[in-house]
Structure of ARL16 protein:
Amino acid sequence: VGTNLTDLRLPRRVTVRELGGCMGPIWPSYYSECSALLFVVDASNPSQVSSSCIQLLSVLSAAPLASVPVLVLFNKIDLPCYMSLVEMKSLFRMQDIVSCATQPITMLETSARDGTGLADVLQWLRSALREP
C-alpha cells in the first residue's frame, strides 16, 4: 500500500509512479502530472476482470487524461492460469472501449516476473513520450 516512484532513462529521465488498485480513490490527484498511463491488469485472476474494467473506464473518462496515451498491460502471462490477450480483450470489450475513448490505447501481454514484454513496454514509453 502506498506509491512507488521509479526513474527511467529513455534517454531522458522519466518518473514512473505506481499506484495500486486499492489506491484508486486517490488516483485523480495524480492525473494532472500524467504524460502517459500504464494500466496493469492481472490476467491470471478472472474474478478481478469486472473491477479492473470499471477502474479502466473511470480512468479513461477523467478529463485530465483525455489525450494521454494509455498502455493496458495484461500481466502475469507466466502463470499457467493466465487468460490470453484475445480472452482479455473480449472480457474487457476492448474494441468498444478503444472506439469510444478519446486517448490512444495500446494493449500488451507482460510478465513482470520473467520480463516478457518489457522491451515492448519501454519502446511504447519512448514513443508515447516522443523519445527517439
About this structure: Strands lie at 3-9, 13-19, 37-42, 70-75, 105-109. The chain has one domain: 4-129.
